[in-house]
Design a protein that fits this description.
The complex is a heterodimer of chains A (about 240) and B (about 240). By secondary structure, chain A is α/β, with parallel strands linked by helices. Chain A has ten helices and eight strands. In chain B, strand 2 and strand 3 form a beta hairpin. Classes of the chains: A alpha/beta (about 240), B alpha/beta (about 240).
């Protein structure tokens, strides 16, 4: 017999019905937050940013690629990284198949990182993704959006190395860089809209706020053991071509 | 100028902080619900079900594929369908790329439908998904869990006015509304413990939204999901959008 409580179908259904009521309330609460998100003011982007892409230098407006909405995932791939962050890579796996559905809703999804473009394009090819990837190496974009930090900011704002969660040294090593350079990039996303030739920033989030881009988490949340990771969170994640 | 309210970076930041506090509460509430889900009793699956797979006939225990957790997405593809349901296909675009990551967490994720195996495999190949798909056509597996409806259960629905979106989805799957709604989308979770199989969780309808990752991306854009009741559904199979 398992150590877990076992019940007959009818008992399970009674408890499940109580949980469903809570789950429905959570879904509606999520809907209400989406409405609040849509009500946030839009902030015009007045600075000129330029990005290096596989198709040459582009402005932020050009990254919209003919659509009126742009969602940027700030993929952790700093100038000193030799490969993209494994956790961001696991997120990219899930995002890649969504492109046709997002395009149908007038939304372009793009990655932006501070590493040089050729490094990003080579890694994208290795991983087999089709999401466009732009380098912000020649602009302040990633710093202005709060997705990248200078070494001085890292020292001032982030906990000392020995207080970082195990995922930081783990992913730093897997990305071929040192811990300070690794955490100078953070997982973040920023949403933009293009209206009358003006780009507005509408929404931004980071850290657990980007879990909406990690579908394996809500899926595991429905399995008996849940995420089952504790303080060593995400250290089980490998690039999809690196699982044994 | 846009009709939407605009603001300075500082104004946006102030409102964003308030919303962030609520977003964090929502995340923590979702964590609590995951705990409640894990506390549900387990129900032993005593019936001996047989599934057709590309590796021959298998029992439910064999579907675990050596792992201790099994998640089944009940993909709407009934015997009269000519192609898989559009919404289930968009869900599979999210599920398939997450299979290797879930496998690393001792979790097998797969699809089960009632159509014959060769139909399922041909459609899987067309869509390019790397996820296992078994046919439950020869068993009551889907019926017992409530993801196949009987004629008697469907009678009140079919005698009423059929919503246009059901007509649209049925037609896109090459069947009529009756053939279409006989199948119900759902997710069920199982664990294997001391040779016995237990069902631990089941969900359907909006409870499946965690597997529709595109919705969570759209929820963070300027226009949100932008869906209106009564309009034809915008979803298509990823190879059927007219404009990309």
């Amino acid at each position: 017999m398992p150590t877990h409580t076992v019940a007959i179908q009818e008992e399970w259904e009674m408890q499940r019905d109580e949980l469903i009521a809570e789950e429905k309330e959570l879904t509606r609460r999520g809907d209400r937050l989406t409405t609040k998100r849509l009500d946030l003011p839009w902030v015009p982007i007045e600075k000129e940013y330029s990005f290096e892409t596989a198709d040459g230098t582009k402005s932020l407006a050009e990254l919209f690629d003919g659509r009126s909405q742009l969602l940027v995932y700030h993929f952790m791939f700093g100038p000193t990284y030799e490969a993209g962050c494994p956790t961001c890579s696991s997120m990219a796996d899930g995002m890649d198949g969504l492109l046709p559905h997002l395009h149908a809703r007038d939304l372009t999804l793009a990655f932006i990182s501070t590493a040089e473009s050729p490094k990003l394009q080579a890694y994208k090819e290795r991983m087999g993704w089709s999401i466009p990837w732009a380098s912000s190496a020649n602009s302040d974009f990633s710093f202005d959006m709060g997705a990248s930090f200078t070494a001085e900011q890292v020292r001032e704002q982030l906990p000392p190395e020995d207080q970082l969660p195990p995922i930081a040294p783990h992913n730093a090593k897997a990305s071929g860089t040192d811990i300070t350079s690794y955490v100078a990039e953070i997982p973040a996303t920023t949403a933009f809209v293009l209206e009358d030739d003006t780009v507005y920033r509408t929404y931004a989030t980071n850290f657990r706020g980007v879990e909406f881009l990690m579908p394996y988490y809500p899926i595991l949340d429905r399995a008996p053991k849940g995420r089952d990771e504790g303080a060593a969170f995400q250290t089980w994640i490998r690039r999809h071509d690196e699982y044994a | 100028m846009t009709d939407h309210r605009t603001g300075t970076q500082e104004e946006w930041q102030t409102e964003r902080e308030k919303l962030l506090a609520e977003e964090k509460k929502l995340t923590h509430r979702a964590d609590e619900l995951t705990k409640m889900r894990q506390e549900l009793p387990w129900v032993e699956v005593e019936k001996d079900y047989r599934f057709e797979t590309t590796d021959g006939t298998k029992s439910l225990a064999e579907l675990f594929d050596g792992r201790s957790q099994l998640l089944i997405y009940h993909f709407m593809f009934g015997p009269p369908y000519e192609a898989g349901c559009i919404a289930c296909s968009s869900i599979t675009d999210t599920l398939a790329p997450n299979v290797p990551h879930l496998a690393a967490k001792d979790t097998k994720l797969m699809l089960v439908s009632r159509a014959p195996l060769d139909k399922l495999q041909a459609y899987r190949e067309r869509m390019g998904w790397e996820i296992d798909w078994a046919s439950a056509g020869g068993t009551d597996f889907n019926l017992d869990i409530g993801f196949t409806s009987t004629e008697e259960q469907l009678k009140p629905f079919l005698e009423g006015e059929i919503p246009p979106v059901v007509e649209q989805m049925a037609k896109a799957s090459g069947t009529d509304p009756k053939g279409y709604v006989t199948e119900v989308p759902g997710l069920s979770a199982y664990t294997l413990s001391d040779g016995a199989i237990y069902r631990t969780y089941v969900t359907t309808a909006r409870g499946l939204e965690p597997t529709m990752a595109y919705y969570f991306l759209l929820d963070r854009t300027a226009r949100g999901r932008d869906e209106r009741a009564g309009e034809p559904h915008w979803l298509r199979r990823h190879d059927e959008y007219e404009v990309d």
